[in-house]
Hints:
The structure is a single chain. The chain is α/β, with parallel strands linked by helices. The protein folds into 3 domains: 3-152, Rossmann fold; 175-419, tm_1862 like domain (pyruvate-formate lyase- activating enzyme, Alpha-Beta Horseshoe); 425-483, CATH 2.40.50.140. It contains 17 helices and 21 strands. It has helices at residues 3-13, 19-26, 40-54, 79-98, 108-114, 117-121, 137-145, 193-197, 205-217, 249-253, 258-268, 286-294, 311-316, 323-336, 355-368, 385-389, 396-419, and strands at residues 30-36, 58-60, 69-74, 103-107, 127-129, 150-152, 175-179, 181-182, 201-202, 222-226, 234-235, 256-257, 273-277, 301-303, 341-348, 372-377, 425-433, 440-444, 450-454, 463-471, 475-483. Strands 2-1-3-4-5-6 form a 6-stranded parallel β-sheet, sandwiched between helices. A 5-stranded mixed beta barrel has the order 17-18-19-21-20. Helix 9 runs parallel beside helix 11 (258-268) and helix 11 (258-268) packs parallel to helix 12. The radius of gyration is 23 Å and the shape is globular. The structure holds S-adenosyl-L-homocysteine and FE3-S4 cluster. Residues 39, 77-78, 190-191, 193, 228-229, 278, 305, 307, 345, 347, 376, 378-379, 381 line the site of S-adenosyl-L-homocysteine (SAH).
Amino acid sequence: MTANENIEKVIDESRQGNPLALEKNKDNSRKLYIESYGCQMNFSDSEIVASILAKEGFNTTQQLEEADLVLVNTCSIREKAELTVRKRLEKFNAVKKINPGMKVGVLGCMAERLKSKFLEEEKIVDMVVGPDAYKDLPNLIQEIDGGRNAVNVILSKDETYGDVAPVRLNSNGVSAFVSITRGCDNMCTFCVVPFTRGRERSRDPQSILEEVNDLWEKGFKEITLLGQNVDSYLWYGGGLKKDFEKASEMQKATSVNFAKLLELTAKAQPKMRIRFSTSNPQDMTLDVIETMAKYVNICNYIHLPVQSGSDRILKAMNRLHTREEYFEMIDSIRKIIPDCAISQDMIAGFPTETEEDHQDTLSLMEYVKYDFGFMFAYSERPGTMAARKLDDDVPEDIKKRRLNDIINLQQRHSLFRTQQHLGKTEEVLIEGPSKKSNAHWKGRNSQNIVVVFPKENYKVGDFVNVKINECTSATLIGEAVAHSKNN
Ligand code: SAH
Ligand code: F3S
């Protein structure tokens, strides 16, 4: 038995409960401070955690200093993300000197990656909980209340938290995330997610629709269906995606794929804006694009990460499509939804990447002219196939230079795209005041571009037609014409 398993077992056996802690929980006075890093899924998971802990008598607070329990939902995607979390733990350490009763737990991908090693490396940490173990939090908290450390990093084959109604944190009351799948089976060679979030599972469509309907009732106007790889959503009564072949004929016949789920959601709330993220080109199908075109409330925006424009690098990354196939997908999107915005993720300096490969990335970008992008220098992640098989052999300065080339090109393309909106009148959903001016509202158009305009008598949550007069590469500036028909 390894040290990790040992600790997990000890915790399991000692879960007899702690009457003192239970007593404390009942009076509803404990304060939870929760902080999230990384992808939207982490932010969504923190809302599930807050919901589970609300039942244990924890109220959330924005004040770190007054917290009884501090949770940090962590990201492992790049080394820098992990360093940020470690810096935060130093801060928590300083606060603990003033508030010695405060307990600290780490959640999410770093918890899953480091397991009980976290407790050795960071003395401030009392509890380590992986992304599939949040329902065990009440037990784990009893453990730390009893003065013991607690770890649960067991990954699940079927946990989707479909039965947990998230507590909306830092919400603008207008847009919300709804998670539809967990985990990822794609095994891109650079990516730590399949290791930290486990096998891919889909959530029961019924529970998704119930959550969407509930959000509408509460006044929300926009949802984003979330998954590491939404296009591979597949519900056939539960179970892993990879076991679908073993399902009965009946299960297969009544299964729900992503296009169908999108349609069900769009029909359930025809006035609600529907977005989704993230799509992997190898799993995206034409019927998803056709469904988007069929329903006006599905936004015209696809986040379609490609990572590289070089066939050789795509192969080394285990991205299961070629540059040519990607172009075909882009052409289909543009044919079926001419004004669809498309964004990318790119990695500069993947092992063995040559100048020629890099030029392929730039020429691919030139072809697509993305609306925006999320661009990164390759960061080797322990345990991934790339880390095990390939040398991280592109020097840091070259990675940085290539990344800059990509960022500069994207900046030009973003400006080219925002300019296409000048003079048009577009529907904007108001999310809140503009960061720069309290006299202006900030919202987004269907293409997910931020639009800023004078407030007049409009309010948060309104759908407004806005005439676009000016733009930067990231923002459209305009004036409201009238409420849109969707109001
Ligand atoms: N499918 C996921 C992708 C998760 S990671 C989603 O829902 O967004 C987000 C992005 O981080 C990836 O698309 C990739 O561009 C980048 N990334 C992942 N691993 C990386 C690594 N080891 N180094 C640099 N960037 C990485
Ligand atoms: Fe990571 Fe590739 Fe999945 S980037 S999250 S393994 S689609």
